[in-house]
Specification:
Layout: H1 3-16, E1 20-26, E2 36-41, H2 45-61, E3 68-70, E4 77-81, E5 85-90, H3 92-98, H4 100-105
Parallel strand pairs: 2-5
Antiparallel strand pairs: 1-2, 3-4, 4-5
Helix pairs in contact: 1-2
Length: 108
Amino acid sequence: MNSEKLVPVIVDALEEIKAHDIDVINVSKITAMFGYIIIASADSTRQTKALANNVQEQVKAAGGKVYSMEGEQTGEWVLVDLGDVIVHIMLPAVREYYNLKALWSERN
């Protein structure tokens, strides 16, 4: 499944479990490792885990592949690796501290 078809599936999965501040960043011009980074915020560690699980389920149901998931033990920052799309689901304080949006957006 290509990233153009995958991104809407991911965004829908995040919105379904009430993620907020969802940012989709096209990074294909600055790295060959992946095409998109999606960053979303959650209100609790329980919600980050639920969001990550829903993303996995919806991507698999759409025919995509999930390569790995990291951070589900603590739930403050969960990363879902979907190959050409990397999803970061973070608590607001963690998201503010690491500021991935600014890091990747400044490079565009």
